[in-house]
Amino acid sequence: MPSAISLLGVPRGEDDRPQYLALRDQIASAIDLGKLSPGARLPSERQLQTDTGTARGTIREALFQLEAEGLIYRRDRSGWYVSPPPVTYDPTRWAGFMTYVVEQQRVPATETLSIESVAAPSAVADIFRRAPGTPMHCVTRRRSIDGRAVLIERIMVDPVLAPGLAEHDLNGSLTQILSTHYGLQAVRNRVDMRPCALTTSVAEMLGVKPGTPGLLVVRTSFAENGAVVEYDHEYWRHDAIRVHVDLQVRP
Amino acid sequence: MPSAISLLGVPRGEDDRPQYLALRDQIASAIDLGKLSPGARLPSERQLQTDTGTARGTIREALFQLEAEGLIYRRDRSGWYVSPPPVTYDPTRWAGFMTYVVEQQRVPATETLSIESVAAPSAVADIFRRAPGTPMHCVTRRRSIDGRAVLIERIMVDPVLAPGLAEHDLNGSLTQILSTHYGLQAVRNRVDMRPCALTTSVAEMLGVKPGTPGLLVVRTSFAENGAVVEYDHEYWRHDAIRVHVDLQVRP
DNA sequence: TAGTGGTCTAGACCACAGA
DNA sequence: CTGTGGTCTAGACCACTAG
Fold first, then answer.
1. How many CB atoms sit inside 10 A of residue A213's CB?
2. What SMART domains does this protein's entry cite (chains A, B) (predicted)?
3. Which tens digit of pLDDT belongs to each residue from B204-220?
4. What is this structure's pTM?
């Protein structure tokens, strides 16, 4: 029973820590101590409400905090769950998603949501060095780890380089297909990353609330002749990924 | 006037978009259109309340959303402001903070907050390959861009390799000092990145609310003989940084 | 259908920034 | 000092998940 000295306004214990942070600490330490394992479900907000005697809004603030830290996540209208550990992504390695997830003893899965031909917006056209409006393959896929959807990717491929791409099974490694069937080999990779919030369309596909924190990874692969092989936007749940780069000075 | 069809619960316009997202869109487009420039201050929450006729909680939800997207930020108890553009950080380049910020036509600044000797916790000791409890230099610095604090860094350096480090002016490039005065040259860099939430202590130093979204960058620099030259944690405001990596396949 | 999170209201007081 | 954001309360109804 945390000192109920007064009953209005913001009384607060002697410690000066807001209630929602205090609750955050309680839950965080429960996770640290293993009382709540990855994947475990937290008590419902209303349960916490009666347990702690604080308003639901305050409860939710603590939960949002933990979500921002990547410790918990929510399944829409189902509940709050403890986040599994993140996978490590290394842009200097050429291994694709399926490969590095398996290497980390996790189970990857890919689902192709759509494959369509779209007119290249000018930003995309620039990258492919083609005229705006040129048709492009646009593949949308959802990828999961241990059954939990962790990213949505939208890949643009030039149909001139990969005609009939749609005929292939795209639920595996796209890089593999481009290499095997079209002789397209990347020799250079450009990667951009930045924290973002997941916008409505992506959020829906991941089954999360719009505005959930995320990480945007933009990959551009170039062939030997400088042609763009793949132009890829990956929208990750922020708690699912960690980036690792190891670099040597070349003498 | 967005259709006041009913007066209780959540009526919502025909579009099915929650009010807080609608407000988010309004503000976001005002920023896009340049009606609000980087650094500009938004109307106060209570002003928006009377302007839009919605409850303050709803207003704040929209603002949090925009903050998570990196479009706006807050100065504690002062107001909400439009975020300046992020700087690009390239871990494959050896240029330090001062250098790459200037290259991007921005004004960098460094402030040393503390320099002390601490006993290495076991995790740190492992990295330096020394016994736990071995004394280490620990430098805490705050770095700013155009006058806005964007990151806190905590650097650990082995005092055996850099005796008397505290005597130097640490408000410039530490890498430079280690190289010039101690002959410590990094030949390998290991970088880890992950989205996080800024914890209380860091948040205070940055003057932001605890839980504000951030990006943690951990750098480990190795000398030719494998010794660890610098072990550095950088806590960035998430809206201030973008990471860029460009990689070639070596034939 | 019961229970969950999602959205929203309309208040209140507190701590601090800034003039 | 005034005004700002920060924290908190105690309700309400909605939209969805899951049994």
1. 25
2. HTH_GNTR (SM00345), UTRA (SM00866)
3. 899 888 878 889 999 99
4. 0.87
